[in-house]
Structure formats: C-alpha cells, structure tokens
Write a structure and sequence with these properties.
- The chain is α/β, with parallel strands linked by helices.
- It folds into 2 domains: about 150 residues, Up-down Bundle (Four Helix Bundle (Hemerythrin (Met), subunit A)); about 210 residues, 3-Layer(aba) Sandwich (Rossmann fold), CATH 3.40.50.
- About 45% of the residues lie in helices and about 15% in strands.
- The protein has 12 helices and 15 strands.
- Strand 4, helix 7 and strand 5 form a beta-alpha-beta unit.
- The structure holds 5-S-methyl-1-O-phosphono-5-thio-D-ribulose.
- The site of 5-S-methyl-1-O-phosphono-5-thio-D-ribulose (MRU) has 18 residues, from helix 3 and strand 9.
- The site of 5-S-methyl-1-O-phosphono-5-thio-D-ribulose has 18 residues, from helix 3 and strand 9.
- Pathway: Amino-acid biosynthesis; L-methionine biosynthesis via salvage pathway; L-methionine from S-methyl-5-thio-alpha-D-ribose 1-phosphate: step 1/6.
C-alpha cells in the first residue's frame, strides 16, 4: 500500500472514528497529533528511530496508541538488526538495544513497555534466529493492534452498563482518551460513543488540558468530527461546571493502574477527581488490562514523566511567561483509589476493594 492509499484508507476509517496508526507492510504511517486540529499531516516511518521520535514528541500519544506504534516499530528495528551484521549474536544484541531505546521514550504509560516486552519475551527470545522471528514480530504487532480495537469495544459496552436507564447524560473528560489515543474507539471516549449511539448522551465537557491542550486540540476535534456534542472548557472551569450542576459523571482514561487501583493519568486528573468527590459526582476510569501494572502496589511508585519547561513557557513557539523562570512540568499525576468510583475494563466494571477486584481480573488474564 502506498502512502497515498494509506492516507485515503485512514480518511475513510475516520468517518467511523479517528484512526491514527496504520501499518502498510513496509512502513508505519502516523497521523501527527502535534499538528492537530489545524493540519492533518501523516508521517511515513521507515526507520524505528522515527517511531521513537514520534512517541517522544507526542506525534503519536495516548497509552494504548504508543504501545501499538512501538509494536510496529519493532518490525523496523528487527529489519535493521538483521541487515546490520551477518551473525546472529550481533543481530540479536542490536535488536535488543533498539527495543530498549523505544521502551525508554516515555516512562509512565505502561502499555509501551507491555507491548515491547510482549514481543521480545514471547516472540524474539524463543526464536533461534532474528530472520525467523521477523514475520512473527509482524504478526504479533498486528495482533496487539487488533486486540486493542476489541478491548475498546468491550470497555465501551461495559462502561455503558453504569448508565443503564439514564438519558441526557453529561460527561466531563480530561485529556484525550479517544480514538486518537488508541487503535480503536477509545477508552473513556469509547464509553461516550456507546452512550451516544444508544441516545443516552447529552454532551461531553472536554477540559482543554494544559499545557499541551490534548483536550482542546484532540478530544474536542475528535468528538466534533464524529458529530458528538462537545463543550470545551479550560481546566480551571471544571469545578465550576460541577458546582453549576452541569456534570453527571467524569470518565477519564489511564496510563498506569496499580494493584491497589491508584491511577496515573494526564496531569490535572487528580484535581478533577477531588472536585468530583466534593460534588458527589462519580469518577470513572476506563482502561484495558494492558494499562494495569500487576507488579506495582502503590501509586507513589509509578514513574512520572517530567517534560521540558518550554511546554509551559510557550505555546506554538509564542512565549506565554517570562522565559527565564523555573517551571514544574510533570506530564501525569496519580489519583488515589479512594477517589475512583469504578474502573471500566474489558472484563467488566471493577469496584472497591480494588486490591481484590484487580487481583480477580489478573487471575482471569494470567491463566
Ligand atoms: C486512552 S489513553 C489514556 C491516557 O493515555 C490519556 O488520558 C493521557 O494521559 C495521554 O497523555 P499523553 O501525554 O497525551 O500521551
């Protein structure tokens, strides 16, 4: 498939929901999310380094999406490793080094490490040669992509059960946990789409999500594109909207969830959860099993990505503050499980006590 054909197939798919990642057998085509909503630019990644750069710079972003993109990036890494040396030992060492660099591009969303480890451990390690592993890596990367689409659909259905019999529902969301952040319908926005298709949704309130405006640039864009009513508000208006009685429930995505149910998500999520608690509004998190870190108990142990001060000091290259001041720029925060009303997964809706419901889910998955 040529770049042109891939772009036109992406455009067709976008009429159902935004599709931002396409593997065409030769290269990985990514919709550059840093350019949205003003420009739809596609990057043709023929080198795994371009995939790493795209993840680091948030051209592709959202926990499930970066896992899917990295899976395809490993095909490019394996091809280069095979071409880099005649002997198996060097090829394998080079591949593992490339995989590690990809894995380290973003530290908080566990879906990235999960996808890379799944391919390295299940596919590459048991194979005798990198040449033999190559088609299997490609098959596994596609399986991760397709699986994410199915997980999104299952979460959408599970999430809708929380709103049975209700109409005119107004949902607040933070950041972008939609089609742009996954391979399918989205996690939080998958539930929103399901409610909309059942005629139950009145509208979505989208926090703009400082500093990189994923809510304004991506969520508002994605929902508006798909004809779902959306109202944009700045982050500091969320508590006001709750106080005014405009919000029935909050639904957000997640980048990592611990075994106790603590949730890392885009910076600002914790404040939204606190405000929801104060106003007695349910705070739901939607995430697939690939977002759970079954090795971590406490949210305080989740590595939080600190990003460049420029993201806070400027927007679109235009300074919005004195440029020589100190800046705090954590990309994520952790919402303690006490503030989480339920976690929507493909296995159903998990409720407190989370250490038990998450352990039961882990048993089902790790059979
Ligand atoms: C379905 S994606 C859920 C999260 O990944 C999303 O809410 C988020 O925090 C994304 O952060 P980003 O820094 O844009 O990758």
């Amino acid at each position: 498939m040529s770049l042109q054909e891939a772009v036109s197939s992406l455009n067709t798919l976008k009429s159902q929901s935004m599709k931002s990642i396409t593997w065409n057998g030769e290269s990985l085509i990514l919709l550059d999310q840093t350019q949205l909503p003003t420009e739809e630019i596609y990057i043709d990644c023929t080198d795994w380094r371009q995939v790493a750069e795209a993840i680091k710079k948030l051209r592709v972003r959202g926990a499930p999406a970066i896992g899917v993109a990295a899976g395809y990036g490993l095909i490019l890494a394996a091809r280069e490793a095979i071409a880099s040396a005649p002997d198996e030992v060097t090829q394998r060492a080079n591949f593992l080094e490339f995989a590690n660099i990809l894995k380290e591009t973003r530290p908080t969303a566990i879906n990235l490490a999960w996808a890379i480890d799944r391919i390295v451990t299940n596919i590459v390690f048991p194979c005798d040669t990198m040449v033999a592993a190559l088609p299997l890596i490609e098959a596994e990367a596609k399986a991760i992509d397709l699986e994410d689409q199915r997980l999104n659909e299952a979460m959408a259905k599970a999430g809708a059960t929380l709103f049975e019999g209700k109409k005119g529902i107004r949902i607040l969301t933070h950041c972008n946990a939609g089609a742009l952040a996954t391979a399918g319908l989205g996690t939080a926005l998958g539930v929103v789409r399901e409610l909309y298709s059942q005629g139950q949704l009145e509208r979505v309130y989208a926090d703009e999500t400082r500093p990189l405006l994923q809510g304004a640039r991506l969520t508002a864009f994605e929902l508006h594109h798909d004809g779902i009513p959306v109202t944009l508000l700045t982050d500091n208006m969320a508590a006001y909207a709750m106080q005014q009685g405009l919000i029935d429930a909050v639904i957000v995505g997640a980048d990592r969830i611990t075994t106790e149910g603590d949730v890392a998500n885009k910076i600002g999520t914790y404040g939204v959860a606190l405000a929801a608690k104060a106003h007695n509004i349910p705070f739901y998190v939607a995430a697939p099993y690939s977002t759970f870190d079954f090795t971590l108990q406490k949210g305080s142990d989740i590595p939080i990505e600190m990003r460049s001060p420029e993201e806070v000091l400027c927007f679109g290259g235009i300074p919005t503050a004195p440029t020589d001041i100190e800046v705090l720029n954590p990309a994520f925060d952790v919402t303690p499980h006490e503030l989480v009303s339920a976690i929507i997964t493909e296995e159903g809706v998990l409720t407190a006590p989370y250490n038990k419901s998450i352990a039961d889910m882990a048993k089902k998955i790790i059979k």
